[in-house]
Amino acid sequence: MRLVAEGLSARRGEDLIFQDISFEIAGGEALVVKGANGSGKSTLLRVLAGLLPAETGSAKLLAAAQPVERLSEAAHYLGHRNAMKRELTVEENLAFWKAFLGDFAGGVGVSIDEAAESVGLGGIVHLPFGYLSAGQQRRMAMAKLLVAWRPVWILDEPTAALDVAAEAMFAGLVTTHLARGGIAIAATHQPLGLEGVKELRMKGFEYSSLEVWA
């Protein structure tokens, strides 16, 4: 499995945010997107997730377990917002995402209880999502990544509102996902605790070559 992006560019209104972004990631690899505010990190992730149109270029998942017309069909997107209804319980929220997304070929999602345990919050899935603290809400949003199998995780500042212990927990989730042959792309200002990942540094209209760092 390979994720191949070629010649991507995107606009916000009339402004060209970035251009000619190309990279390739294989199954089991992670790409960290870094850069100053306004350099296009979030815009790039939203283009990959199918939430914004690309001005030019394409992003494709090749040699996957099933044909993929759009990368978004094989991807989870975790943005700045948690995409959960505050009035519904955690269980109801996760049940919705599990049923709505389903499992992509080649993997099976875990149960809601297992997902909650994996993010360190087992036993509170009966509570309304809005009752949880900001850190607990972020953890439960991460549980969404587990209940439905998607080989590509697209993550925008995933460790926002998390303490050090939760950051380590999240690094473990990503490491396990990569070990299953998955792919992770994360935009962040903070270290994610992952080793040997590729780095893409956004500089507006330019970007650095890919590098591997520990």
Description of the molecule:
The relative contact order is 0.21. This protein is of the alpha/beta class. Strands 3, 5, 6, 7, 8, 9 and 10 form a 7-stranded mixed sheet that branches. The chain has helices spanning 41-48, 90-101, 112-118, 134-147, 164-179, and strands at residues 2-12, 15-26, 30-34, 56-62, 75-78, 152-156, 183-187, 197-203, 206-207, 211-213. It has one domain: P-loop containing nucleotide triphosphate hydrolases (Rossmann fold). It is globular, with a radius of gyration of 17 Å. Helix content is 27%, strand content 29%. It is built from 5 helices and 10 strands, in the order βββαββαααβαββββ.
Please give a handful of descriptors for the protein shown.
214 residues, alpha/beta, Rossmann fold, three-stranded antiparallel beta sheet, globular
Please give the share of residues in helix: 25-40%
How would you name the CATH homologous superfamily? P-loop containing nucleotide triphosphate hydrolases
Number of strands: 10
Question: Kindly state the mean pLDDT as a whole number?
Answer: 86
Task: List the domain count as a whole number.
Answer: 1
CATH class: Alpha Beta
Beta-strand fraction estimate = 25-35%
Radius of gyration: 17 Å
What is the helix/strand order? EEEHEEHHHEHEEEE
Largest sheet: 7 strands, mixed
The rough form would be described as: globular
Point out poorly predicted stretches: 208-214
Structural class: alpha/beta
**CATH architecture name:** 3-Layer(aba) Sandwich
Q: What is the count of DSSP helices, taking H or I runs of 4+ residues?
A: 5
